[in-house]
Amino acid sequence: MVFRQRPEKLELVLLHYLHPRMEFSYEEGVSYTNLVKGYEGELKSDGWLRGLTDDWLVLNDLLLEYNGSKFQIDTLIIAYERVYLLDVKNFEGYHSIKENKWYTPAGKPEKNPIHQLERCETLLRRLLHDLGFHFPIESYLIFINPEFHLYTTSIHPAIIFPHSLTAF
Questions:
Q1: Extended beta strands in 69-152, E state
Q2: How many C-beta atoms surround the C-beta of residue 1 within 10 A?
Q3: Is the dihedral of CA 8, 14, 15, 16 positive or negative?
Q4: In which band, very low, low, confident or very high, does the pLDDT at 1 lie, cut at 50, 70 and 90?
Q5: 88 contacts 39 by C-beta, under 8 angstroms
Q6: Does residue 84 come out as left (phi exceeding 0), alpha (psi in the -120 to 50 range) or beta?
Q7: pTM
Q8: Beta strand 137-143 with 82-89: parallel, antiparallel or unpaired?
Q9: Where are the beta strands (DSSP E) in the chain?
Q10: Rounded to an integer, what distance in angstroms lies between the CA atom of residue 22 and that of residue 130?
């Protein structure tokens, strides 16, 4: 059961209004495009999760704070005695990992989404522990775009590719 519908981020709403009224700089345009693509990917994942049992709680787009550190969770699923943390990415193109560093299709370094996922999981685990909950947490990085490919020399069990979503 979806407990909290996914809202459109205020920043994205404001940029939707500004976009036809002003010319964005290159950096602003890239930021706007990334926000739009990210939101579209999250909506796709919401559609994919609609078929879950009503016994599970699905919480979307959470902004939490623990011990002075803020962290954002795309989707949190509470299922019986387990919590699933899903970080959804709508990347496209041929990305690569070399020596634990991620690169864009243009070969430029980018933030490692695995590090972001691990940070989120650590903060969520500590927060739940302090609140008296000791559920196991399983974290997954969900790549929702079928036009995404990752070149890597190893398999990471927390990464779910578009072609694996149904089996997952």
A1: 69-79, 82-89, 93-98, 101-103, 109-110, 137-143, 148-151
A2: 9
A3: positive
A4: low
A5: no
A6: beta
A7: 0.79
A8: parallel
A9: 2-4, 57-66, 69-79, 82-89, 93-98, 101-103, 109-110, 137-143, 148-151, 159-160
A10: 47
